[in-house]
Structure formats: C-alpha cells, structure tokens
Design a protein that fits this description.
Layout lengths: L1 E11 L2 E12 L6 E2 L2 H12 L29
Antiparallel strand pairs: 1-2, 2-3
Length: 77
C-alpha cells in the first residue's frame, strides 16, 4: 500500500461525474483504492447533494463508443 491522490468516476443515472484530488491508500498489487473516513464522508455528501453543492473545477468532453453490432453470439449466426 502507498498513499496517493486519486480520482474516481461516479454515475448518477445517465450522468457521469469525475471527482479528483481524493486522498487514498492504493494497493501496489491490484491498484484498488481505499479511502479514509474523512474522504469517504466527503464523497458521500457530494453524491447525496447530487453534485449541486459545488461548482465543477472544470469540464471535459468524453467520447462514447458502442459495441452494438460488433459482438456476434452463436445465436446471431
């Protein structure tokens, strides 16, 4: 485990939110992120308030790709 500042993606319905600058402990083997109680509580409050309590620090454009029609199952043949 090592301390790091991480980011995480949170979906609410069909909206995606990215939260950065989260203090965490990260597993050196599997890269899983563990948050302390303070970070967990801050994330909980932010999601419960539907991300309306803060103005976003910035916004990004995210391309969306689909695999529809690109995966062929045996019953499709």
């Amino acid at each position: 485990m090592h301390p790091a500042t991480v980011k995480t993606a949170i979906w609410q319905g069909d909206r995606l939110f990215l939260v950065e600058d989260i203090p965490a402990e990260v597993c050196d083997t599997c890269r899983e992120q563990f948050y302390n109680e303070e970070a967990t509580e801050a994330l909980r409050r932010l999601t419960e308030e539907a991300f309306t309590s803060l103005a976003p620090a910035r916004e990004i454009v995210v391309p969306i790709f689909s695999l529809e029609g690109r995966i062929h199952r045996p019953e499709d043949v």
